[in-house]
Amino acid sequence: MRYISTRGQAPALNFEDVLLAGLATDGGLYVPENLPRFTQEEIASWAGLPYHELAFRVMRPFVTGSIPDVDFKKILEETYGVFSHNAVAPLRQLNGNEWVLELFHGPTLAFKDFALQLLGRLLDYVLEKRGERVVIVGATSGDTGSAAIEGCKHCENVDIFILHPHNRVSEVQRRQMTTIFGENIHNIAIEGNFDDCQEMVKASFADQSFLKGTRLVAVNSINWARIMAQIVYYFHAALQLGGPARSVSFSVPTGNFGDIFAGYLARNMGLPINQLIVATNRNDILHRFMSGNQYVKETLHATLSPSMDIMVSSNFERLLFDLHGRNGAAIAGLMDTFKQGGGFSVEQERWTEARKLFDSLAVDDAQTCETIAEVYEQTGELLDPHTAIGVKAARECRRSLDIPMVILGTAHPVKFPDAVEKAGVGKALELPAHLSDLFERDERCTVLPNDLKAVQAFVSQHGNRGKPL
Questions:
Q1: Its pTM surpasses 0.85
Q2: Which of 112, 202, 392, 415 is flagged as catalytic?
C-alpha cells in the first residue's frame, strides 16, 4: 500500500513512513493511493467476529508490506484488550431504529482511544525496529491529549508534548492529561484557543529545525493511522444491525472532520451507508459548507462541547481531494486561497456531489442541554454534550426512518459535568474505578504564551527525556 499527498507534490510513502511523517512535505495530508474494496459477501462473513479480529480484516490492506500479519494481529489484540467492555464498542438502543454506538469504554473514556491506543503500539513497533527516537507535538481540544498520553506513555522512544487551550477544556479532560507523569510526558497550556494550538503544530511540522535533527510525529487526526483505526467501528456497528444486507446511516459529532471521514471511507470500501450527518456546535464551519457551500473561517466560540470548538477542520482537505478528482494542484490552490482570504466555495457540481451523502446541523448550547434532558427523561440514558449534538442532528436531518440511525457516542458524560448540570439532570456522575481518585492526584502542566518560538524552545529544551535536544 502506497500513500500520496492531497497536494500532489510530496513523494509517495509506505505505511511505516506515513505513520512517522504526519503532514506531507508539501503541507498536504496523506491518503491511500488506492482504497481497498470489500465484497458484500466478504463483509457479511465478518459478522460475530471479536472486535480485534474485525479490525485486522478491515485494516490489514493499509499496512501490507510494512507489518507482518502475525505482528499486526498481536498489536490489535493488545490494543482492544484494554477496553472495559467486552464488546469494545457496544450499541445502545434509544428507540425503535435509533442507536448510540458507545465509543467511550477505553482508558480515557473517549473515542480517541480507538486510534491512539493503536498508534502508541504502532510507534513502539516501528521505532524499535528502526532504532529511532521521535518527538510528538500534538494539539488537543480536550480528548486527543489524554488519549495520546495514555497510548504513548510507555513508548521507550517517544517524547510527547501536548498543547491545549488554557482554561478551555473541562476539568476532567485537563486532569486526565496533567496527572500522568513521566520523563517523556509534557503538558503545555497555551494562552489561546484550539486553532492557535493546531496552527503551532502545523508550523512546527513545516519547519522542524528547532528539533536539531530529531523527527516530529503527529498524533492528531492528520496522522493516517488515526483515520484508519476509526473506519473499523463503522463496519462493527453495521454488522450488528443487519449490514451489509441493509444500509445504515450515521450521525457523527465532529469538529476536525476525521471521525466522519472514516465513515466516508468505510462506505467507499464497500459498506452500505445511506447517509452521513455532520453534527457540530456553534463553531459551524462544516455545517456552513454542507448546507450552503461556504467554507469560511469565523470567530471561535467556547461551548459546552469543547472537543468540537474548532474553526479550521484539518481533515476536510481529504474529502476536498476526492471531490476534486484527486487533483493535488487544485487542492493546493484551494488551501492557499483559504490561507490568504479565510474562505472559499467549490464548484456547484462538486458541492452537489458531497450533498448526495452528507447532511449537517449546527446545535447551540441550549439545544444541547435540551437534548440531554429529553433523552434522559425518555430512556434513562445520560449523554455527553457531543453525543447529544449527534442525537439532535440525527433527528433533524434523518432522510429515512426505515434505515437504522447510529449516533456515535464520542465520550462518557462524566467528562462534561457542566453540561449535565446545565441540562438539569439530577443524576450523580461517578468516575470509573480506574479514575476514581482523579481529583486528588497531583497535576503537572506548563502555561506558555500564544507564541510559536516559546513553545518550540520549550520542546527543544525538554525533549529526550528531559535532556535538551
A1: yes
A2: 112
